[in-house]
Amino acid sequence: MIKHDVVIVGSGLAGMRAALEMCKDLDVAILSKVYPSRSHSGAAQGGIAAALGNSEPDSWEEHLYDTVKGGDFLNDQDAVEEYVKAAPDVIYELEHFGCVFSRTPDGKIAQRSFGGHSKPRACFSADRTGHTILHALHEQLLKHSKSIKIYSEWYMHSLILDGDRCNGVVVSDIRTGAVEVMQARAVIFATGGYGRVFNITSNAFAGTADGVMAAFRAGIPLEDAEFVQYHPSGLYRQGILFSEAARGEGAYLLNGEGERFMEQYAPSRMELAPRDIVARAAQSEMDAGRGVDGKDIIHLDLRHLGEARIMERLPQIRQLGIDFIGVDCVKDPLPIQPTAHYSMGGIPTDKTGHVITDEQGTLVNGFFAAGECACVSVHGANRLGTNSLLDAVVFGERAGRSALTYANAVGHAKVNESHEKTKVLEQFENIFQQNGSESYNDIRDEMKTVMTENCGVFRDEDRLKVCIDTIQKLRERYKRGKVTDKGKVFNSEIYEIIELGNMLGMAEIIATAALARQESRGGHFRTDYPKRDDENFLKHSLTYPKDGELEIKYKPVVITKHQPAERTY
Amino acid sequence: MATFRIKRYNPEKQPEPYYEEFQLDIPQGATLLDCMNQIKWTLDGSFTYRMSCRSAICGSCAVKANGHALLACQRQASHLVKNGDTIVLEPLGNMKPIKDLVVDFKPFWDKIDKIKPYLQPKTRAPEKERLQSPEQFKRIDDSSTCIMCGSCYSDCNVLEVNDKFLGPAALAKAQRFVEDSRDGKTHERVKELSKPGGIWDCTHCAECVERCPKPARPFDRIKEVMTVALEERVTNNTGARHAISFTKSIKSSGRVNENTLPVESVGYFNVKGLFDLLPVGLRMLFKGKIPPILHKSIDDVDDVKRIFMEADKE
């Protein structure tokens, strides 16, 4: 049995920031199924929000209002207030760590405009902001390598819960296949999102719901799972991201007729309306046959920005266009379509990152979550661009701090090692032994397709029912899958199969929560209930496991300063 | 129909690697990684490689294709089809294979660790951000694009013969701090980087620049560190002395003085170093390869001097 004071699962921004908060006092382990520097936080391009006011006067009050309005008033405003107030210091700290930022002429951190933000608030490093923050934190991790043990290419299988207390995780070393119990006084999940359940997604292959499903299997509900963000500018068919920073710098969205169609949907903010609104506008244009060449394509046009500005501010986007589709955005518009991008929902936590299980805020002692896998909820029904990196760093730090306090006060609890280990070994054995004939690849493809087609930008009762029904059938087929590689060394096939199991579970939860929410709000749009319904649905959903079925309950939204109002841009 | 000729290795099954061929129709617009996934998901589930972001930012999927390292997600497969219809896939070089295209990155990370890859600030943290001009940002802009994919490390010609060499990625990372206006350890850093295994072990082949999938271009960064080392007068080492002697000779005569260059490189007072040169010198003497004792300038040496003068002005 491996023993640490605290185990962090996931080494993106949230996980690494949490580790740094604790490493002076505790023996910390941080686990990644890839390498820390390969975490998906690094793919974030456009920026990280904070009301620094470096290019225009700004305030946390405005950041708060923009965030709440962007989230369609489902955000818990007490949490949002703490979050936006914490933002400037968090950015300064990253800068002090050595993070490389683009600068204003007078040497301050440069800031640009972003969708839904009323001020230029996005601190950035060209168009690789996530990458530079990830590497700055990774550098700090290496600096403190004496007290932080990095487990690269280790996979987390399950959470060890004893009643209301978390005592560790069961993990395996991908390189050797060895299963181990990691005993800890506290566990922090920073496992990211689950965009891979969709066919068109910006997410890395690693975004497979491992963390949220481990929590769910341990009996912890998932909050607001129906709220998935579709980013308007995914590369056609591939789904990889062209940052909103392109529009922040002034790029246009054009339909097949060459019109800036946002005029019809958000005349005051145009291309810089929040993502849910822009994605719906783009999808509506395509559905009405106004896509480019009659296909599901919208054009992202940067040509008027000129080569110099593109090279200074958006060099990566230009390169992605050239490498992935042979389009140079200096000369031609980029073909895009909405892509599943971010999960607003996740493991419910309080404002300190401590995981809670119900409306009363009942704690799971010793279990914390931060970043995309968690739901505080600061994003409500739709996250604003550049608010996610901020979420990861702010709540990574807070989860770290509260885990530190908790772990200082308790000892290691007893863990039944063989019992916990056996459960995971059995899972491996079951997959190896089942000797079925179903192709896991077909199952995965069918899941992704049914989710994108029926649980995407536009949803309705019939389509969601088709979705749930299909997923349930796929889960049956999954039990009869066929595995090729039965080895122990770096068996990436077996891990993909385990990940697929997690994704099938998550897909059903998303669709079920979406079916139950009979209204349209933020990223969740029901064509059969096209209006927001504050009377019945101004509340967070909590999806629980119950006897192999799903049970949905709700909890109220915390409203402090801003009463829900009509949301126009 | 294209052939993917893949170097397979699975120590659990057999100790020796072997090549296996797979046939695949390359779908329109498919990247090399898309094709590798097609092979894994439809032809042989045991085919093993790393991947994650598929947008050229995580650095997981670097492999060798047709003999050179690249990011599989970043390249159109159809552009790689060679010899009629074959793409040869092999694991990265200069690292030990673990299984198929997965190699052991430990030595790579160990070397990153060695360059103290974190800011050592000059000043106490102010209340807000440390100021840095856009020009100062520009000096570390390119090196900060490195994604640690290992492509440069794989194809580095020095590492093939000298595993003590820190390698292009670690040295490019070092430049990121050497030239960071906020870092206070510039001198200590270049001193450390001038030791054996550091910047002066680079042979200037620039293979790493060819292989780098980002604008990091390690060799360009190494040259910048060399410049800072000379500016900081960290010259008490063979590499720096070689560079200085070389420049001095060109500047005064327009050509390299092959007699003084080796002597000045090891140092006039380095008795052991000079003795080490003797056997080579003697062999050259016997083969009649000793350059003329009297070093002559080229005819247009004044032009060379003018070039130096112009360069010095800058």
Describe the structure.
The complex is a heterodimer of chains A (about 575) and B (about 325). By secondary structure, chain A is of the alpha/beta class. Among the domains of chain A are: about 230-340, Flavocytochrome C3, Chain A, domain 1; about 420-550, Fumarate reductase/succinate dehydrogenase flavoprotein-like, C-terminal domain (Methane Monooxygenase Hydroxylase, Chain G, domain 1), CATH 1.20.58. Chain A has 16 helices and 20 strands. In chain A, a hairpin with a 5-residue loop joins strand 8 and strand 9. The longest helix of chain A is centred in the last third of the chain and has 25 residues, at about 490-515. In chain B, the strands form two sheets. Chain B has a five-stranded mixed β-sheet. Chain B has a two-stranded antiparallel ribbon with strand order 6-7. Chain B contains 14 helices and seven strands. In chain B, about 40% of the residues are buried. Chain B folds into three domains: about 1-105, Ubiquitin-like (UB roll); about 105-230, Alpha-helical ferredoxin (Fumarate Reductase Iron-sulfur Protein, Chain B, domain 2, Orthogonal Bundle), CATH 1.10.1060.10; about 240-315, no CATH class.
